[in-house]
Amino acid sequence: MANEEDDPVVQEIDVYLAKSLAEKLYLFQYPVRPASMTYDDIPHLSAKIKPKQQKVELEMAIDTLNPNYCRSKGEQIALNVDGACADESSTYSSKLMDKQTFCSSQSTSNTARYAAALYRQGELHLTPLHGILQLRPSFSYLDKADAKHREREAANEGDSSQDEAEEDVKQITVRFSRPESEQARQRRVQSYEFLQKKHAEEPWVHLHYYGLRDSRSEHERQYLLCQGSSGVENTELVKSPSEYLMMLMPPSPEEEKDKPVAPSNVLSMAQLRTLPLADQIKILMKNVKVMPFANLMSLLGPSIDSVAVLRGIQKVAMLVQGNWVVKSDILYPKDSSSPHSGVPAEVLCRGRDFVMWKFTQSRWVVRKEVAAVTKLCTEDVKDFLEHMAVVRINKGWEFILPYDGEFIKKHPDVVQRQHMLWSGIQAKLEKVYNLVKETLPKKPDGQSGPAGLVSGDQRVQVARSKAQQNHALLERELQRRKEQVRASTVLPGVRIKEEPVSEEGEEEEEQEAEDEEPMDTSLGGGLHSRLANGLPGGRAAGGDSFNGHPPPGCAGTPVARELRAFVEATFQRQFVLTLSELKRLFNLHLASLPPGHTLFSGISDRMLQDTVLAAGCKQILVPFPPQTAASPDEQKVFALWESGDMSDQHRQVLLEIFSKNYRVRRNMIQSRLTQECGEDLSKQEVDKVLKDCCVSYGGMWYLKGTVQS
Q: What segments bear the compositional bias annotation Basic and acidic residues (predicted)?
């Protein structure tokens, strides 16, 4: 009480809430300008606003007669921005930088606690602020000057007539977009490009600016005073003390709205527990990928029924070695595709199911064996393995979690149900991939642990023993094929020198295979790591003994015929392809084939290249620049040499040019074609051969696939 007596009330002020400008009042701040140097007396040339974004632009005049103004610099800037010719679109019509633009940015998004106050005749009138904007000088004219400079450089570099001619034969790529998934739509809506596009779509509203001492400004300032004297409009301030305090200090939920939003892939445990149980399990498994059941129960909380969790986990995950691994269709929804190869979700799910099934048979999986069976690219296979395994040097990929025998013993009914599901998946995989049932070591009686655990070293031993058992049979087959080749290709009087088969070389190969990671490199996906198509690795199809081409006896096999048909059809459409692009098209072709097709038996890169060379194509040794970022497969360029039409000669001349040059100008190609094919070569013929084989970038022509985008 003593303190209150020492601090008496000196004056009581009535507070009024004015609403006339509540949705229109903005506070402008100029953070790069001292408060003593206002813009009140500077002429404002124009003003415009985007109301939804609360974005304002003001144009103010610059005093060009001021002694501190450098006239030569102003003329130079205007020349750089507008060029020598002034027109209606010019930024500086006077050929002098005589104005500057100010752009706004929001100081705060929540202006609910800010108001403009006007004290008059013992009354305080408050008007809520609609926005608080900070205006800074804009330097967009420098971007315009830079664009002008680049245009002048581009005009000086090349001949405009050549550019116009090249535009006629510019390659056009037509793409058919797939239906957009809800997940992809949300990512697109949240992207920076989409937001920028939406902001640009809002039209500018042009405004009239009135100075500080203008009569219209004086009239508008009257709206800052509360218009109603009866107090009917000010019922917001007639509150009880607790309600008034609540208005001054809103509760915490209001404050949480301004907290930064977490990334879309981050969900707090508090938010997670507000969702239904099925959604909680799905989100956890989708993020963790592999989890023991005990860990899942600890994350969900002690009050959750384990029976309900078991029922829910079986809808989104599969049991592997006593642990739960998220299902493939959860990670790869129906309308999605691989970010690496573009393979559809159905093929990705099938490949990942194969990896999961392999881990039900063994704790170890060899990456190359998976790639050989599934025919998927290395990046996709690596993604599958990283979800559920860790790599071990010289051994392969080991399942990431230890075998959970406690769960197996505690829930035999769930284990039996999962075993039946895996049996169905195995039957489907055997049909699709033509799998051969491998003989795995049997588990001794009474041994605890997962069934059929086979290490990488044991795989190598099994492969070696099988190779030794079949060695004699393979040698006889090799001799029989040699006799067939000799009978069909040897001319009278020609004797072929035969080299003895070196046992030491084979032993060295076995030693190398032991030292490196024991990965399966066979085309069929079996355990014969040194065999391909029934022949030793050094004499497989496409070996040196046949000069880089497959043996004549193999050309009539169904696999060779199907592969030859694919290659011929592809090159009739594309004419020029890199090995990387050809392999991508072949993988897409495989994905479109029905299960059990002959091409699923295994096609190596060498077999694919030999088929290309045998189909009337040639490899073009393009001299790539030393600093190229192209991979070895991208540097192998193949082109259709003979197709039987009138363009063969033109195409061959063009390909010879690119065997000596990485990039060529059109006039050089034109002159060389005229020299080789005669003066009557029309522009349409030149355009056709360029369109078939080349692409144009920056006035230069490149073979398709050789320029890095």
A: 146-155
Average pLDDT of span 361-367: 90
At 509, the pLDDT band (50, 70, 90 cuts) reads very low
The answer for residues whose C-beta is within 8 angstroms of residue 312's C-beta and 6 or more apart is 277, 278, 281
Range 197-219 average pLDDT: 85
Q: Which residue has the tokens 């304002």?
A: 56
Sign of CA dihedral 412, 418, 421, 426: negative
| Rounded CA separation 496/490 (Å) | 8
pLDDT at 235: 56
Higher pLDDT, 488 or 585: 585
117 by DSSP, 3-state: which? strand
DSSP state of 66: S
Domain residue ranges of the chain, discontinuous segments joined by +: 12-84+91-149+193-226, 269-433, 558-703
CB atoms within 10 A of CB 82: 20
Give me the phi and psi of 576, to 5 degrees please: -135, 130
What distance in Å separates the CA atoms of residue 452 and residue 551, rounded to the nearest whole number? 40
pTM reported for the whole predicted model: 0.34
Mean pLDDT of 672-694: 82
Angstrom distances, CA of residue 603 to CA of 319, 370, 372, 523, 532: 33, 14, 9, 6, 10
Instruction: List, in order, residues 6 or more apart from 106 with CB less than 8 Å away.
Output: 54, 131, 132, 133, 134
pLDDT at res. 525: 39
**Tokens 């793409």 identify what position?**
175
> Rounded distance, CA 85 to CA 90, Å?
9
φ, ψ dihedrals at 644, nearest 5° = 90, 5
pLDDT at 523: 36
The answer on pLDDT for 182 being more than 80 is no
Q: What are the tokens at 4?
A: 């209150």
List of residues 6+ apart from 515 with CB closer than 8 A = 394
Whether 536 contacts 470, CB under 8 Å:
no
First-to-last C-alpha distance (Å) of the chain: 81
State residue 520's pLDDT score. Answer: 39
Burial of 356 (0-12, 13-18, 19+ CB in 10 A): buried
293-300 helix and 306-316 helix, angle to the nearest 10 degrees: 120
Strand order through the sheet with 389-392: 364-365, 396-399, 389-392
* Cβ pair 692, 651 in contact under 8 A: yes
Q: Residues 305, 311, 312, 316: is their CA dihedral positive or negative?
A: positive
What's the pLDDT score for residue 482?
A: 66
Q: 202, 194 in Cβ contact below 8 A?
A: no
